[in-house]
Amino acid sequence: xxxxxxxxxxxxxVLTLFCGIxxxxxxxxxxxxxxxxxxxxxxxxxxxxLVGSQEIGQNFGLQVYKNGKPEMDNGxxxxxxxxxxxxxxxxxxxxxxxxxxTTFSNLGPNSVATEQEISSNIQAYISLNGKxxxxxxxxxxxxxxxxxxxxxxxxxxxxxxxxxxxxxxxxTVRHLPLxxxxxxxxxxxGGRGLGFSGExxxxxxxxxxxxxxxxGVHA
Amino acid sequence: MTFLGWLTIVLFCVVLTLxxxxxxxxxxxxxxxxxxxxxxxFRTPERLFYRIxxxxxxxxxxxxxxxxxxxxxxxxxxxxxxxxxRTQTLWNWTGLNPEGFHxxxxxxxxxxxxxxxxxxxxxxxxxxxxxxxxxxMAGLTVQNFLSAGVGIAVAVALIRGIIGRSGKSIxxxxxxxxxxxxxxxMPISFVVALILVFQGSIQNFxxxxxxxxxxxxxNSIAMGPVASQEAIKELGTNGGGxxxxxxxxxxxNPTGFTNFVEMLTVLVIPAGLVFMxxxxxxxxxxxxAIFATMLVMFxxxxxxAYIAEAHGSPAQHAAGLHTQVVAGSTGGNMxxxxxxxxxxxxxxxxxxxxxxxxxxxxxxxxxxxxxxxxVPMANLSASEVIFGGVGTGLYSILLxxxxxxxxxxxMVGRTPEYLGKKIEAREIKLVAIGLLITPLAALFSTAxxxxxxxxxxxxxxxxxxxPQGFSETFYAYLSQAxxxxxxxxxxxxxxxxxxGNLGSHGITFTDLLGGFTMLFARYAPILFxxxxxxxxxxxxxxxxxxxxxxxxxxxxxVLLIGxxxxxxxxxxxxxxxxxxxxQGLTGHLYQ
Lengths: 219, 591
Fold this sequence. Notes:
The structure holds 2 protein chains of 2 kinds. By secondary structure, chain A is an alpha+beta fold. In chain A, about 45% of the residues lie in helices and about 15% in strands. Chain A folds into 2 domains: about 1-40; about 45-215, no CATH class. In chain A, α5 (about 160-175) runs antiparallel to α6. Chain A is globular, with a radius of gyration of 22 Å. Chain B is mainly alpha-helical. Chain B is built from 19 helices and 6 strands. Chain B has helices at about 5-30, 40-55, 65-85, 105-115, 125-130, 135-165, 175-200, 225-235, 255-280, 285-310, 315-320, 340-355, 370-380, 390-410, 425-450, 455, 465-480, 510-535, 555-585; strands at about 210, 220, 415-420, 420, 495, 505. In chain B, the strands form 3 sheets. In chain B, strands 1-2 form a two-stranded antiparallel ribbon. In chain B, α3 (about 65-85) packs antiparallel against α18 (about 510-535), α10 (about 285-310) crosses α12 and α15 (about 425-450) packs antiparallel against α18. Chain B is globular. The two termini of chain B are about 30 Å apart. The mean pLDDT of chain B is about 95.
């Protein structure tokens, strides 16, 4: 018994040093040398200022002002989607796409709350894109990823179909030929892992930065 | 559903098998003391560990001594982890708490500590708003290794009992633990962590980033030593996420490729152990039979989950969405799923992590369709024997094997024997109790939490009015009793208004009930498994005759599946009906 206690006490301490300190430090060291950009999160700077990470979905919205002051809802800024930018998927975090406090929506499959949430996402999507899309949009035409909340709340990608629909809006608002926007979309469409694992996704952040480089921010 | 979706599932099974066979051979060498190719690297550190810990690795332990070492070591681990988590600000001098987070309250910490000790990794907290880097590394990562090591040690001990030819020894706990950490967990974690960083996982000690995005909005991004923890989290079938959204977070699981790698990492040891078992018993066919049993049940579960999720949910259809596959969109139930994984990558990941005791998630299980959500619950109801957790899966299915042998023996009217050893009343009593403890704990805790107002306080407001509320409760205790850790994540045990835990409080009833459920359902079955090992170790082996029931052919595989399904169904069917199956059978929406 006494022997077990001594061995356990020493054992847990040395194993903590080995697995809890040494192992993460070595991995950090090797990663920082071998893949420095990745280990720091593939950060992107514009004019020397950090604007985001390629891997993290961001809210491309505009702050709503009321009486000259930023409008807040429970301490969270109220925003409207900026029509000049591709929009990420709906997010359950507060504020949307908050990469410092991620959360699921946790909305159940048979819940009225889920139906309401999806309906309001559909409405928002149609009112943003409907008038630019040839023939207009109905709920049935809205891609599921645009109406359903992502898991992480910071999904960097949207489906190709979602991007194609938004491309019509972007082309009009930014006065670009649709084909140019479509070319950019396919440039920032990631493939499947190993050619089969997962789904292609369009990286919204990279795509939007590329648009800004092409036309300037205030197109 | 898509062709590539099905291809992913099939290829996954193939690649898993191809990796598990050599790993099984390697692990058999590790646990029987034969030379391995990593000896030059780890032989010296291994001896050093024994010397520092004052262990004589050659000294065999009987099952009681083995159990005593295991329990005392676990207790030491529990105390240290609780201390580290409760004194989070005390470690600020290390520089590993850049956000200055305070400790979570005592009740949440009790739950978390018990959770990581038992390989459950149930999380009432959100990682990036609760834990300092120091707590994640020196606290949680350590137990990711050690709880996995303990699980494998028990499995190896049980195997030694089954094959033992002489005496009472079932091995040495300290040797099994150290060799598992050094020779199995550490090298694979190392490789997987680097693959993850190569694909985009982060590994740093930076402050969280605060900046303004292109439209001028304020943004924050959490940082941390993610990849090192992610690798062992999958490998040790732990599942506790660095971030709140676990493997859905792009820093934990950045691409479709990492999704595939992480799923393989979860299953490779549980599958490899089965092949190791075949080698250690001297009859590889025994291993193949168990592997076949697991693979059949696994594949069935994946098919059901994929079909259900690809079909979409009643809420989607009520809102007017079309959920078929169209050009450029996967369709299906994308609520709580990531675009880069799609439906197949999410359904497969869900099954991989719920058949094992991993419990990592790359999608929100609470948002799965009724039938899609019933699949993980059914997996848990099978007591984690479809591959199962590292070690726990093998020792649990071996108990089922003994039960199947016993039932088969009764059916043909012969004395039940397994690998030449007679299975007698004592073993069957131990097996039966060992197998029923976990379901009992799950159902008892669910009943208690459902029937009491203190328990119902944890149900989320959105789910309170329908079967979803029951599903949340049932899943919570089913998951904790099976040491899984995945969740219908709206079920709450922690109220945290601000990141960093100021002003936060736990829900004591829920935290404690869950904590005790995990501890009880982890250590009681371990004791019974070790007792079975001890009971079998001393038995004489009689040669197989004409009348001996074969345990390595398809007939036995069918019998074994039958026994597992029967025990699970008899125990859990009423509860499954009340929750997910009701939802799966109706298009009705609940308030």
